[in-house]
Amino acid sequence: MVNMAKLSEHKTDLIRLAVVALALCLSWLKAWKAFLPFDAIALAATLIGGYPMFEEALEGIKKRRMTMEISMSIAVVATLAIGQFFTALIIAFFVLFAELLEDLTVSRGRDVIKKLLELLPSQVTVRRNGQENEMNVNDLTLRDIVIVKPGARIPVDGVVLKGHSSVDQASITGESFPVEKTEGHKVLAGTINQTGVLEIQTAAIGQDTTFGKIISIIGQAEKNRAPIQKVADKLAASLVYFAFGGAIVTYALTHNIVSAISALVVAGACGVAAGTPLAILASIGRTAKEGIITKGGIHFEQLAKIDTVVLDKTGTLTFGTPEVTDIESFNGLKKEDILQLAASVEQHSEHPLAEAILKKQKDLGLRLLPYSNLEYLPGQGLVCRVNGSEILIGNISLMDKRSIKGQTKVIEYIDQRKNSTETTVFVAKDQEIIGALSFADVIRVEARQAIEDLKKFGCQVILLTGDNWAIAKKIGETLQLDKIFAEMLPQQKLEKIRELMQEGKKVAMIGDGINDAPALMAATVGIAMGSGTDVALESAGVTLTTNNLMKIVEALKISRQCLRVIMFNFWGTVVVDAVGMTLAFLGYLTPLFAALIHVSSELAFILNSARLFRKNGAPPRQSGVGLHEI
Ligand code: ADP
Ligand code: MG
Fold it and tell me: Beta partners for 326?
């Protein structure tokens, strides 16, 4: 019922409230009544206290929008008209008081978010040409070297050039155990350098940092209103009509103006209108603190309704940091040569398997060869030319599709590994498979717990992977998944999601980035895991800043709590208004009582929403593993 006043406006509201309260006190002290023109004082105080309400009522009339301020203003004017100055004063007092309290709670909600994202340091120490200088962070250029002392917040995204320290990344990840950072490690703006001096090469400043992006997403989250918020606003508007209708009917049937005014005052109390945005604001703040970044109320509401959770395998259910466990050569080439070719093709790829190959290549000190004409086939592999030959690297279906031949050795190899849980990738040169690489990846420590909890929430849990069936089955058994789908291309993942949604399921798709982007966008809610990659931030409605599956459970829990509170407020409002109207009609209510019911029910619903600021229930379980680098 109230527009959101800025903090400075609270002062005038407080003064108004004091004037009204003083007038009320005076009226209670009978002694004064003899000396003072009390009616005049009450009238003046009502006008002063009710001014913001009258103003908004006029605004509503001008815009031809029926608002609560209009019905309440009419009620106050009518009460004054029948000479009940004291009652009018009390109604004004209640309305003003409720409004102030509501504004304070909402601005507290904003503060929680602001505090959470405290601004980055504005002054930084920079080394240019061997000299250290203080300068404003906005004057930095990319590649500037920033020096960060212990205890200071890191001002930029960048890479550590020199130094060793532990860094508290809680501002981004919501988990405050320190992460060791040394040369070559990425660091993020907004995190806190704890123990050592770090020299950081700047990669992004201000709004371009991960931190900056999170701030802007949360800043906009409020605008992305949840559908339930529109329903709440609609309810509020219809309640005003209900109040008018009820008042008119009451007067027509009972000819009692006091009952009619009471009806007008009591009905149309709408805690849900104010309580809903507050509940969502509180919950967005709470999840953000946990490293769960929600792009808006709409995703939040959908999260609460999820009944099917679809998980990608590599990087989502597993750590996504596989290691090369075996290299096989089929036609006499040295294993190093196979690895060298594979690494050369993968040198600019960001796939977890590529990282494993490049790590192995580095460990063995192999040189990378130049490539050309590179083509990336998501969910399958890569094709390019090296030294004049066409080189392919990818899964067996890619080899099949390109009708690449393998010797009997290849078929034997595949047969041997039928039941292995390791991922195999083949390397082909000029239409012939020359080698294979095997990788072992590890299931996340918290995966079992997270899946168990998701099932307790009544969700069906499904695995969707581009990897082969043997691995999918093994993981499905280990984690007791409800369904598995393997050897899926990104397009097929997308179709699977669509299929589930056509069955009426509310699907949360959890993936770790680029090749899952289409599926993330198609799902009811796309949840991007960790890494804070730009693509993930853009294509998913929800981003987890840590690679911790328990955060999904946490997100569902908080969103469900939020929706429960909103639904309670919704039906509570309907019941209070209906009962209030009946009482008014039967003549049991005075305008004073009506105002009391109106205001106290609104406050109750607002406070019910404000409960969400507190973290209730058990603290979220930690994953038990160290933070994954982001
Ligand atoms: P997941 O669904 O498990 O996350 P992806 O869809 O990323 O897996 O990839 C599926 C399969 O495609 C991998 O198991 C691998 O065999 C092959 N593949 C994808 N990208 C690459 C790559 N860059 N190099 C080699 N193989 C790849
Ligand atoms: Mg993946």
Answer: 438
